[in-house]
Write a structure and sequence with these properties.
This protein has helices spanning 4-18, 41-45, 145-152, 159-164, 174-184, 197-221; strands at residues 23-28, 50-56, 59-64, 68-73, 79-84, 94-100, 104-109, 116-121, 262-266, 269-273. By secondary structure, the protein is α+β, with helices and mostly antiparallel strands. It has 2 domains: 4-127, MutM-like, N-terminal (N-terminal domain of MutM-like DNA repair proteins), CATH 3.20.190; 145-273, Helicase, Ruva Protein, domain 3, CATH 1.10.8. α3 (145-152) packs across α6 and α5 (174-184) packs across α6. 37% of the residues are buried. It binds a DNA duplex (16 and 16 nucleotides) through residues 1-3, 6, 34, 58, 73-77, 93, 110-115, 130, 154-157, 161, 164, 166, 173-176, 242, 267-270.
DNA sequence: CAAGAATCCTGTCAGC
DNA sequence: TGCTGACAGGATTCTT
């Protein structure tokens, strides 16, 4: 589920609870998620002070005093739950539990186990195997129409697939790609290399605005990014096309001119779009 | 090489 | 109410 805005919001929630605190206790409840947990993870976490956080694409990096970073990826179903420390029972599918010196508990829950956790020297974040190949951050100033069209110039795949490729631009997933293409008025079926010039000039701000609005919604709807049940980061969204097949497209007058939002399948994944306004 | 398919895993929901 | 099959927001790895 989590794409860039959700990951950003989860990270801010972790920041509020963990930054500057000491991890008094760390527990693993199984040996692996997508890959084995790194050797020495629990030992390194225990007693460590959390120096800060950053996000890169859909990865959360928790920096520890002493120069190591813990990398988290939430996969499809990963969640962070917080609550008071002390309870010894482990919620279903909670695989890693942290407890802070000031009495908070953070649990990493991931039923499908597509997520991952790694431990690396902070100085090597940029060259880590999972981070090295990532494209530009879409909210950074260097993500420009010129940069995007250069990245797309040789791509003979639909723009939908090219934007899902984390090497083109980092952090978009199926939902935000659909939403950004709708906002930009670009068909998901369009060949990636033809997204240049005016189309690239529309797409970059569309991606930025779609993500920024979602992050803002997360920040305003949750106090300290925590839901009442202790879940970090998730919030209600108002999609324009995602999951809305068969409903009216808000930009169109309706039938017979427009069939409304349609669902198609591209590379095995659902795409939602309006064929009248997205060209 | 690039692009599409298969794959990991569990939960949920629609339909019978 | 159970059962079955389709599907889910990711990203690597395998095939073509």
């Amino acid at each position: 589920m989590p794409e860039l805005p959700e990951v950003e919001t989860v990270m801010r929630g972790l920041q509020a609870r963990l930054e500057g605190r000491t991890i008094a206790r760390a527990r693993l409840h199984r040996p692996d998620l997508r890959w084995p947990f790194p050797a020495g993870l629990v030992a390194r976490l225990t007693g460590a002070r959390v120096a800060g956080f950053r996000r890169r694409a859909k990865y959360i990096l928790m920096r520890l005093d002493g120069g190591d970073s813990v990398l988290f990826h939430l996969g499809m179903s990963g969640r962070m739950l917080i609550g008071p420390a002390g309870a010894n029972d482990i919620p279903l599918h909670e695989h890693l539990t942290l407890e802070t010196g000031d009495g908070w508990r953070v649990g990493f829950v991931d039923p499908r186990r597509f997520g991952c956790v790694d431990l690396l020297p902070t100085a090597q974040e940029a060259t880590h195997r999972l981070l090295a190949g990532l494209g530009p951050e879409p909210l950074d100033a260097d993500f420009t129409p010129a940069l995007l069209s250069a990245a797309l110039a040789a791509r003979r795949t639909p723009i939908k697939a090219a934007l899902l490729d984390q090497g083109t631009v980092a952090g978009l997933g199926n939902i935000y790609v659909c939403e950004a293409l709708f906002r930009a008025g670009i068909s998901p079926l369009r060949l990636a290399q033809t997204v240049a010039g005016a189309r690239a000039a529309r797409l970059v701000p569309a991606i930025r605005a779609t993500l920024a609005e979602a992050i803002a919604a997360g920040g305003s709807s949750l106090r300290d990014y925590v839901q009442p049940d202790g879940e970090l980061g998730y919030f209600q969204h108002d999609w324009k096309v995602y999951g809305r097949a068969g409903t009216a497209c808000e930009r169109c007058p309706g039938p017979p001119g427009c069939a409304g939002v349609e669902r198609i399948v591209q590379a095995g994944r659902s795409t939602f779009y309006c064929r009248r306004t997205q060209r």
